[in-house]
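re: ur question from yesterday

yeah so i grabbed the chain u mentioned. its 315 aa long if i counted rite. heres the sequnce exactly as i have it in my notes:
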Amino acid sequence: MSGFFEDRRVVVTGGAGFLGGYVTEGLRKRGCRNILVPKIEDYDLVGAQDITRVYEDMRPDIVIHLAAVVGGIGANREHPGEFFYKNLMMGVQLIEQGRQHGIEKFVAIGTVCAYPKHTPVPFREEDLWGGYPEETNAPYGLAKKMLLVQSQAYRQEYDFNSIFLLPVNLYGPGDNFNVQTSHVIPALIKKCMDAIDGGQDRIECWGSGNVSREFVYAADAAEGILLATEKYNSAEPVNIGSGFEIRIRELAEKIARLTGFDGEIWWDSSKPDGQPRRRLDVSRARECFGFEAKMPFDEGLRATIDWYRTSRRSR
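ran it thru and got these structure tokens back, copy pasting raw so excuse formatting
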């Protein structure tokens, strides 16, 4: 541990959320004495006045901006306007007021959804501007992508140190298992375990199952974010991922096996698949700040399933 974080005041927006919990824990392990989390009950980060209060109340040296309005394909299709507006307003105003308040560094967290729909695999950061994002999550992806434009523009004009990171799909203990807003791994785990509990012999899944995704364990993603916060100070975006790709059909079969569900997996091809493939080139993160994901995928899935099974019992 370098001591970089010890005396710095670090605001983590979204610090009470899924990824935020891992980031704040990582800060504690690094000896950070001032970890500041603006709770949604106290600060609406879509509003400029509340963002001003965050900066005046918390006086950060560094802001790690994790807060986002997110969801799976269904939530993105149902709320494209909300996802665009709220994510854009949060990020743009936090960066602008961070500049005005003279903070040392801003860490903007983007999304793999910012990549074009037909990006060559593996996704390289240089390919970000090669086309329009996949339609079902384009408003969210573009709202986040604008924070890269702002970060680079502010570095050029104001010498403002804002970096932009692109995490791939996250998973792990503490994930969101809400049926309306969850992503694919928690959604599949919940479907399998609900079917087991209900004595059902079939689960239904969206799309063809033939598209692929990459996943990174949330604790690994948090480590990548903190390494970048400490060591990376450049304009170019950086992927945060595992470099591992799996077809959704194979993922569903794996989760069924690990949860103990032995029924049929039925694919509803009338529902969208989303982006055809996702796998990141993760070499820049390794070269620039020494990040490599460590959690083996099956082990991470088991930990996530075990956590969810325990959390269900405790309700």
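noticed a couple things. The chain has a mean pLDDT of 95. also DSSP finds ten helices and eleven strands in the chain.
anyway ttyl
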